[in-house]
């Protein structure tokens, strides 16, 4: 990298295509990430179409009958967040222990966000890989 030089990285998968840009980010918990933008080849045509229905019992059900279940792990993390919030509120303002408890709470919020993003990414990636045309139910939730 310019101005910094070389930095070590851990690649969780090989970079496909031509690299177009890199963004370096640091999370509130102190983790560093390199977001690599690359130009890739388009996916091969499958010739298949699917309709997706959003439900209450299932996260979504498609016209082929495949259903993605609602996430159950989020409740467990929300309970941990609730407990961590109580711990932060009991600590004296400005203390090192409060800062430590606040960092623990921030890590739990980051974990919850990562769980939600991962849960949403899995079905969307499935549909993009297996279908050319994807139709989603248009819900008008605000109108009663």
Give descriptors for this structure:
single chain, 144 residues, alpha+beta, two-stranded antiparallel ribbon, 37% helix
Structure write-up:
It is flat, with a radius of gyration of 21 Å. It has two helices and six strands. It is 37% helix and 24% strand. The strands form two sheets. It has a four-stranded mixed sheet, covered by helices on one side. Strands 1-2 form a two-stranded antiparallel sheet. With 144 residues, it is of the alpha+beta class. It has a domain at 46-136.
Short description:
With 144 residues, this protein is an alpha+beta fold. The chain is built from 2 helices and 6 strands.
What is the molecular shape? flat
Portion in helices:
25-40%
Q: What is the number of helical segments per DSSP (H or I, 4+ residues)?
A: 2
The parts where pLDDT drops under 50 for at least 5 residues are none
Multimerization state: single chain
Please describe the topology of this protein.
Blueprint: E1 18-26, E2 32-39, E3 49-54, E4 58-62, E5 67-69, H1 73-90, H2 96-130, E6 133-136
Parallel strand pairs: 3-6
Antiparallel strand pairs: 1-2, 3-4, 4-5
